[in-house]
């Protein structure tokens, strides 16, 4: 699945604490499993997710293989101004992906 | 006298319906919560992708699903509640996956999508989601009858190394524990479903194969018509239950 | 009674519901202590402030919903700087390290984690004043019958 599922309220009042949810499609291969021929399956996880709000970092999560496949993360942030929440995540191959969600603050 | 029988039959049907439970009801509160929140239900990753594919032009004909069907919430609403159906042009009962692939080969002039490919799961769950909360109502007419009977036979016949039938678990022993889990009634209300065991979304065919492997019976290849027969029988048996695609199950 | 299935990890289910999970590689108390020490340093670990929300029983260990709330303000002067989750009997003790700040507004975090077996889960919150607070919960992880081959 190409795109993550991001839940950011479209509108919020200034100073309001809003809930943020993100769901990313990824197998989060733990490195602890073996295939049918007994060979270990290499670890392949998203190991870092950072959320910035108008370029200021508001949340950072370092993930380990114990995070479930198709990782789901939920946290809070204060609606400070109209702008963009940007999510950036990095996998074990060093691949960096991003997604954004707008928020209108009144 | 006839009236008495009709009343008796209706009473019987009512009891049977009252006892009919979706797999949702056999899920833990946490699994139900995961399904109920669209922002947390991982199945929506596929639904979202399915919407993208629905609107994407594909194949030699350069057509998208939307070019023929328009808005999915109008055109395919209810489809998942009444499939599988007998398709005259195919001369057979087909399920939604097969309908999608027939559309691809005939109308889009595109290659069919492989079973369990993310794209086929995405389109199937996007179509399925349009019927969410609708009651399952599959028609068994004369043309579908033999397929239904085949499905019923498969469900009821003992098979595999432990000589077990589907029915022995799901008709005779539902609600009891098998290892750490309650045995559900095997109503396919929410497919494609996100299963925690699989750590991904999977089709009803995959679920049926999973059961067969668990029974230590031979699982026919994905293309087998036996799966459609079982799907038809199970959907007819689930009549009246609500579609909850994309469901989350253990 | 008959055994209903066999899993490649040799996982036997006796009739009557008794579960005999063969535990795979496990974090040792030492690696667990080391992982915690890396976060906490020499600060004493105090019970309180942290609320770890975990179901007492999970029907599958592949995706267990978990949340952590810390009862503390989120101001510049006084806030939760980070939240950490550890699983005592997983192959690796670390689950997630979360960095927060006053911009969070509320010290809350939720995710879904893998638990290889029934065990104790530990949450630690580190505050801006350097103090470390903790909560823990015990969870039973059940295993399914009739599982598909990998």
Automatic annotation (TrEMBL), chain A:
<dbReference type="Pfam" id="PF08770">
    <property type="entry name" value="SoxZ"/>
</dbReference>
<dbReference type="InterPro" id="IPR014756">
    <property type="entry name" value="Ig_E-set"/>
</dbReference>
<dbReference type="InterPro" id="IPR014880">
    <property type="entry name" value="SoxZ_dom"/>
</dbReference>
<dbReference type="InterPro" id="IPR013783">
    <property type="entry name" value="Ig-like_fold"/>
</dbReference>
<feature type="domain" description="Sulphur oxidation protein SoxZ">
    <location>
        <begin position="9"/>
        <end position="101"/>
    </location>
</feature>
<protein>
    <submittedName>
        <fullName>Thiosulfate oxidation carrier complex protein SoxZ</fullName>
    </submittedName>
</protein>
<dbReference type="InterPro" id="IPR030995">
    <property type="entry name" value="SoxZ"/>
</dbReference>
From TrEMBL, chain B:
<dbReference type="GO" id="GO:0042597">
    <property type="term" value="C:periplasmic space"/>
</dbReference>
<feature type="binding site" description="axial binding residue">
    <location>
        <position position="103"/>
    </location>
    <ligand>
        <name>heme c 1</name>
    </ligand>
</feature>
<feature type="binding site" description="axial binding residue">
    <location>
        <position position="211"/>
    </location>
    <ligand>
        <name>heme c 2</name>
    </ligand>
</feature>
<dbReference type="GO" id="GO:0070069">
    <property type="term" value="C:cytochrome complex"/>
</dbReference>
<dbReference type="GO" id="GO:0019417">
    <property type="term" value="P:sulfur oxidation"/>
</dbReference>
<dbReference type="Pfam" id="PF21342">
    <property type="entry name" value="SoxA-TsdA_cyt-c"/>
</dbReference>
<feature type="binding site">
    <location>
        <position position="207"/>
    </location>
    <ligand>
        <name>substrate</name>
    </ligand>
</feature>
<dbReference type="GO" id="GO:0016669">
    <property type="term" value="F:oxidoreductase activity, acting on a sulfur group of donors, cytochrome as acceptor"/>
</dbReference>
<dbReference type="GO" id="GO:0009055">
    <property type="term" value="F:electron transfer activity"/>
</dbReference>
<feature type="binding site" description="covalent">
    <location>
        <position position="65"/>
    </location>
    <ligand>
        <name>heme c 1</name>
    </ligand>
</feature>
<keyword id="KW-0808">Transferase</keyword>
<feature type="signal peptide">
    <location>
        <begin position="1"/>
        <end position="18"/>
    </location>
</feature>
<dbReference type="GO" id="GO:0016740">
    <property type="term" value="F:transferase activity"/>
</dbReference>
<feature type="domain" description="Cytochrome c">
    <location>
        <begin position="146"/>
        <end position="238"/>
    </location>
</feature>
<feature type="binding site" description="covalent">
    <location>
        <position position="166"/>
    </location>
    <ligand>
        <name>heme c 2</name>
    </ligand>
</feature>
TrEMBL record, chain C:
<dbReference type="InterPro" id="IPR016568">
    <property type="entry name" value="Sulphur_oxidation_SoxY"/>
</dbReference>
<protein>
    <submittedName>
        <fullName>Sulfur oxidation protein SoxY</fullName>
    </submittedName>
</protein>
<dbReference type="InterPro" id="IPR006311">
    <property type="entry name" value="TAT_signal"/>
</dbReference>
<keyword id="KW-0732">Signal</keyword>
<dbReference type="InterPro" id="IPR032711">
    <property type="entry name" value="SoxY"/>
</dbReference>
<dbReference type="Pfam" id="PF13501">
    <property type="entry name" value="SoxY"/>
</dbReference>
<dbReference type="InterPro" id="IPR038162">
    <property type="entry name" value="SoxY_sf"/>
</dbReference>
<feature type="signal peptide">
    <location>
        <begin position="1"/>
        <end position="27"/>
    </location>
</feature>
<dbReference type="InterPro" id="IPR030997">
    <property type="entry name" value="SoxY_para_1"/>
</dbReference>
<feature type="domain" description="Ig-like SoxY">
    <location>
        <begin position="37"/>
        <end position="146"/>
    </location>
</feature>
């Amino acid at each position: 699945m190409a795109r993550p599922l991001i839940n950011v309220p479209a509108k919020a009042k200034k100073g309001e604490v809003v809930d943020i949810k993100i769901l990313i499609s990824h197998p989060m291969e733990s490195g602890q499993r073996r295939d049918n021929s007994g060979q270990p399956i290499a670890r392949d996880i998203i190991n870092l997710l950072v959320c910035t709000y108008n370029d200021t970092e508001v949340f950072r999560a370092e993930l380990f293989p114990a995070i479930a496949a198709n990782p789901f993360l939920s946290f809070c942030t204060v609606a400070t101004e109209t702008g963009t929440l940007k999510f950036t995540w990095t996998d074990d191959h060093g691949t960096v992906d991003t997604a954004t969600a707008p928020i209108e603050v009144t | 006298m006839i009236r008495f029988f009709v009343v008796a039959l209706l009473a019987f049907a009512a009891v049977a319906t009252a006892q009919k439970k979706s797999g949702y009801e056999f899920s833990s509160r946490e699994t139900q919560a995961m399904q109920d929140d669209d922002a947390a239900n991982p199945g929506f990753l596929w639904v979202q992708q399915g919407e993208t594919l629905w609107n994407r032009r594909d194949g030699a004909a350069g057509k998208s699903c939307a070019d023929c069907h328009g808005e999915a919430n109008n055109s395919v609403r209810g489809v998942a509640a009444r499939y599988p159906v007998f398709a005259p042009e195919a001369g057979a009962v087909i399920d939604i996956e097969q309908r999608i692939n027939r559309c691809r080969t005939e109308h889009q002039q595109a290659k069919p999508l492989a079973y369990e490919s993310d794209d086929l799961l995405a389109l199937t769950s996007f179509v399925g989601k349009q019927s969410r909360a609708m009651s399952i109502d599959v028609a068994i007419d004369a043309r579908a009858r033999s397929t239904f009977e085949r499905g019923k036979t498969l469900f009821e016949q003992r098979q595999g190394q432990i000589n077990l039938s589907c029915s022995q678990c799901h008709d005779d022993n539902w609600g009891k524990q098998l290892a750490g889990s309650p045995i559900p009634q095997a109503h396919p209300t929410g497919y494609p479903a996100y299963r925690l065991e699989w750590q991904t979304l999977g089709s009803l065919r995959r679920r049926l194969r999973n059961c067969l492997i668990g029974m230590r019976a031979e699982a026919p290849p994905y293309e087998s018509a036996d799966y459609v027969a079982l799907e038809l029988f199970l959907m007819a048996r689930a009549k009246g239950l609500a579609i909850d695609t994309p469901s989350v199950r253990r | 009674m008959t055994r209903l299935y066999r899993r490649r990890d040799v996982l036997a289910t006796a009739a009557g519901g008794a579960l005999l999970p063969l535990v795979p590689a496990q974090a040792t108390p030492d690696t667990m202590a080391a992982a915690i020490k890396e976060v906490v340093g020499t600060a004493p670990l105090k019970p309180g402030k942290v609320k770890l929300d975990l179901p007492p029983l999970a029907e599958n260990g592949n995706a267990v919903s978990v949340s952590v709330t810390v009862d503390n303000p989120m101001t510049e002067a006084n806030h939760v700087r980070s939240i950490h989750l550890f699983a005592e009997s997983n192959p690796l003790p670390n689950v997630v390290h979360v960095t927060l700040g006053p911009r969070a507004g509320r010290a809350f975090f939720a995710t879904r984690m893998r638990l290889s077996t029934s065990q104790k889960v530990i949450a630690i919150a580190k505050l801006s004043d350097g103090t470390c607070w903790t909560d823990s919960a015990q969870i039973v992880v059940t295993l399914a019958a009739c599982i598909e081959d990998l």
